[in-house]
Amino acid sequence: MVLKPIFHKNKGKLRKATSSFERLNLNFKGPLPTNSRYHYLQTIVDEYSRFPFAYLCRDISSTTIVIRHQSVFSLLGIQGLNHRNSASECDSINYPILE
């Protein structure tokens, strides 16, 4: 007899991007083992084209996030939706300016 886990199925509808840079995924990796001042890697990936941006960051404060996003948005314009995986740093008072 084989026991298989019962996975939770989300009943919500997944929003898919229909054009380039309409929806972005925002993630952090770290702290990274390094001898430099940069301990985190922030990635911003376009869901439609899978085009990545990667930034080395000293910290993951909301100020750092705003600076990095301003550089991306100055190239592409402000997107319709940013998707992040439980990034509490984005709950700061500094971040909603961009949303």
Helix percent reads 10-25%
Global shape: flat
Q: Output the radius of gyration.
A: 16 Å
**Structural class of the secondary elements?**
alpha+beta
Q: How many β strands by DSSP?
A: 4
Give the N-to-C terminal Cα separation. 51 Å
Count of helical stretches: 1
**What's the arrangement of strands in the largest beta sheet?**
3-2-1-4
Integer average pLDDT: 77
How large a portion of the residues is in β-strands, by DSSP E? 15-25%
Low-confidence parts, pLDDT < 50 over ≥5 residues?
A: none
Main β-sheet description: 4 strands, mixed
Element string (H = helix, E = strand):
EEEHE
InterPro entries: RNaseH-like_sf (IPR012337), RNaseH_sf (IPR036397)
Protein name: Pro-Pol polyprotein
GO molecular function, one term: nucleic acid binding
How do the helices and strands line up, and which of them pair or pack?
Layout: E1 23-29, E2 40-46, E3 52-57, H1 62-76, E4 81-84
Parallel strand pairs: 1-4
Antiparallel strand pairs: 1-2, 2-3
Main features:
99 residues; alpha+beta; 4-stranded mixed β-sheet
Structural write-up:
With 99 residues, the protein is of the alpha+beta class. Helix content is 15%, strand content 24%. The chain contains one helix and four strands. It has a four-stranded mixed sheet with strand order 3-2-1-4, with helices on one face. Strand 2 and strand 3 form a beta hairpin. The longest helix is centred in the C-terminal third of the chain and has 15 residues. The radius of gyration is 16 Å and the shape is flat. The termini are far apart. The model has no long low-confidence stretch (mean pLDDT 77). This is Pro-Pol polyprotein. InterPro entries: RNaseH-like_sf, RNaseH_sf. One of its GO terms (molecular function) is nucleic acid binding.
